[in-house]
Write the structure tokens for this entry.
Amino acid sequence: QVQLQESGPGLVKPSQTLSLTCTVSGGSISSGGYYWSWIRQHPGKGLEWIGYIYYSGSTYYNPSLKSRVTISVDTSKNQFSLKLSSVTAADTAVYYCARGAYSSSVFFDYWGQGTLVTVSS
Amino acid sequence: QSVLTQPPSVSAAPGQKVTISCSGSSSNIGNNYVSWYQQLPGTAPKLLIYDNNKRPSGIPDRFSGSKSGTSATLGITGLQTGDEADYYCGTWDSSLSAHYVFGTGTKVTVL
């Protein structure tokens, strides 16, 4: 059973960089075939895809966030990470990491429990 | 502002059926496969349907998905109180800046 767990600061100051890590257990990131993803949910709102990374390092980002987002992978630790720069209060959200699988198209079959990140001074 | 539109809410009595629509365009639903997610209160989303109409292992056949043109539909039969949740559709958008998109979300209430 694949499990994902987000970790990182729950409070970030405006203009700083939000950094989160997702630790994957029950499966190896380097085995390939999956898109390791970040998705966020603003309080009381819907889901927003941030981006994902393939085990090879190829990345795909939401165009609305692309200029501020970096997703990276550390196969030795079986982790992948999110960095979001120049944050504002509008980046306050629950951040989920998820595994993107592919059959005829991409879908997200395993999710972390989510971590609330608040942007405030 | 999502490009996939869902009704804000639907409701029905226990045992009844509900359907949730997800309306998009040719750049997303019209040319890609749709997945559906259930989000129970205070929890992470859970995959219900992928590739328009396939259920992952462990998802009961009370949940079904379909797609026609630029719209997709999630159906829930034999509604149970445990089905009260938010439901989201999702698919790839193949526009100039390709990216994954989720629907606006639908709250299902069991009366």
Residues 92 and 100 of chain B are 4 Å apart (CA to CA). The interface with chain A takes residues 2, 32-35, 37, 43-47, 50-51, 54, 56, 88, 90-92, 97-105 of chain B (CB under 8 Å).
